[in-house]
Amino acid sequence: MFTQPSIIIQAPRLNLSLMEQAAATANANQLVLLGAHGGLLYDIDTTSVSDIQQWAKNNLIDFAYFEQGLQDWKNMKILAMDMDSTLINIECIDEIAAIAGRKEQVAAITEAAMRGEIKDFSESLRRRVAMLKGVPATALEQVYTEKLFLNPGAEHLLQKAHQAGIKTLLVSGGFTFFTERLKQRLGLYETHANTLEIDSNGYLTGEVLGDIVDAQAKANYLKTLAEKEGASIHQCIAMGDGSNDLLMMENAYYSVAYRAKPIVQEQARFSINHSGLDAILNWFNP
Predict the structure, then answer these.
(1) For 73-286, CATH number?
(2) CA–CA distance, 188 with 87 (Å, rounded to integer)
(3) Where are the domains of the chain?
(4) DSSP alpha helix (H) spans, 40-137
(5) Residue 84 among the catalytic residues
(6) Known active-site residue 82
(7) What residues form the catalytic site here (predicted)?
(8) Which member of 62, 84, 94, 241 is catalytic?
(9) What is the mean pLDDT of each run of 10 residues along the chain (286 residues)?
(10) Which class is 1-70 in CATH?
């Protein structure tokens, strides 16, 4: 059990020499190796935290500070994740648009929305979906089978979550076509996303059916599940990369910006920029 102030550093390039350098800077009483590319700096000089954080940034190393030490993984209750560019490697809507020869226009709106430059996510989604009118629905399957891959560490993280009885929640401003397939494939507990309308001839109409899953909806789904499971904010993890994930992330102590836009990195408690999604496993006692 690690109950004293601790720092965890991780990155593919992290080696023993760099770990020892960090431990010396932090005046850590103990350095615990976390595999080949991770280290726990335990019982540190808390006045050195900002120095280590800057050192990690300069050296392309992921940094996480735990003032009260580490919680037990088995005590966590909810792992909530965004889909596009978090659980998976792509923005699905951009890849659907690419098949229609409209990726540049759609991707520009996606980027602006994720950076927080377009405040009304629902309107930005409707604008992008409208550009998909007339695209054959077979394009969705093509994107799923040819373009969509899980981000590094995803399967390992989810496996460990399920083994610990942690409920896995996938909430996306993307589309149910993809979230439902990922739910079955990965054994996810609950998924929510938007439904694309398809006409009787098998083409996208350019419309979304029902209410749009926006930032507030994402937050509400997490809050509802947390209430159902009796989970405190300290028992929730929320991972995302775009500005529409921020409200959801406010409802989790472990708010994690995964290779995220600057606005998300600024507001999240933790960031992962170099390691895989499963880097968070090292933040907890096994």
Answers:
(1) 3.40.50.1000
(2) 12
(3) 1-70, 73-286
(4) 49-58, 92-99, 103-114, 121-130
(5) yes
(6) yes
(7) 82 (nucleophile), 84 (proton donor)
(8) 84
(9) 93 96 94 95 95 96 96 98 99 95 90 84 92 96 98 99 99 98 99 98 98 97 99 99 97 98 97 98 94
(10) alpha beta
